[in-house]
Amino acid sequence: MVGWGCAARLDTSGTARFTDADSWWRQLCGHIDVEDEVGLPGCGPVAFTSLAFADQPGDSVLVLPEVVVGERDGVRWITTIGDAPEPVVEPVRQPGTVSYSDGRLSSTGYRQAVTAAVDRMRDSGGDLLKVVLAHDLVANTSEPLDERFLLHNLASRYSNCWTFAVDGLVGATPELLLERRGYEVRSRVLAGTAWPHPGRTDDEIAAELLASAKNRSEHQYASESLAERLRPFCSELSVPASPSVLRLRNVLHLATDVEGKLADTPEGPGLLSVVEAVHPTAAVGGTPTANAVPLIAELEGMDRGRYAGPVGWIDGSGNGEFGIALRCGQVEQQSTAGAGSGGARGGRVRLFAGGGIVPDSDPDQEVAEAEAKLLPVREALEGVR
């Protein structure tokens, strides 16, 4: 689905962001008269949504576009809100030269944070088993950044990921937090990562990943975390006993696809309520979550914003898809010339990457893993084919 224009918008933050979003969306849909001759998930009113990772700080947003063009199972439709204007079509612009600089947490700072996390876990007596840390990198473009350029390159190179662009947050995530179609729900949990090495085949790397006790343990925390939080909402839940390997251009992940059926009750939970219950999973937070999440803020020392938060869409019937905002960048505009000089304006994008840290993690390996995870957005910015 692609939407443009803004018929309505909610900006919220803090611990009540999910509740605020759910209440606003229900109330808004209750006042919309819908003519829907298609009847598929994603038809009718749709809110494009991106929610902050942490309770504080971080801004969350829901946008109801004036126009949505959608396609599902070979069926295409256009949804308009009122008398929506015709789009102004402009050529996709190239970003020009791309340069990089340290973000709020450099790779050196990230290594130090990983080292500190490993020490904390080893001294915790089992009270902290995993913490997921990240760092950022700033990309500057000599020309104004056209999000469509970045989005198209990500979609063409990572077709087995969920590609998204919501309010400046652009990425291609391999991890599905939660999808709902009627009473059916599913999730794809990723944790445990390897990346290509010269002289090694993907099959060899995949076999080592499956045999790695460190990665299997990290993955088990994540899949059990998701299942534990999702199970109270479901009458049925299927969790495979062993993970599979998801192969991407830049990395390989251990993956588990969880499927369930929501309990058939008169006042069943809304999608946003279930998303709130499962976020953050151990895949992006840690284990136990209550101990890991505060440590993230302490060791990273930066605001993640909407990185690693839920991103996706919800329709007026409660159907929707929310991925975890990974392999992404937050687009920010900046001036490449002094004030009043009349120079051109360039672009600024804040990129994020990280990984799950456990007591036997190697800080140097974790830095290398984060670098591999930055490649998708870097190459998309640089136009690498």
TrEMBL record:
Boundaries of every Chorismate-utilising enzyme C-terminal domain copy: 108-373
MF terms (GO), sorted A to Z: isochorismate synthase activity
Source taxon at top rank: Bacteria
InterPro entries the record matches: ADC_synthase (IPR005801), Chorismate_C (IPR015890), IsoChor_synthase (IPR004561)
Reaction catalyzed: chorismate = isochorismate
EC assignment: 5.4.4.2
Record key words, sorted: Isomerase
One family name in Pfam for this protein: Chorismate_bind
Family the UniProt entry places it in: Belongs to the isochorismate synthase family.
PANTHER family: ISOCHORISMATE SYNTHASE ENTC
Name under which the protein is recorded: isochorismate synthase
Source species: Saccharopolyspora dendranthemae
Phylogenetic classification of the source organism: Bacteria, Bacillati, Actinomycetota, Actinomycetes, Pseudonocardiales
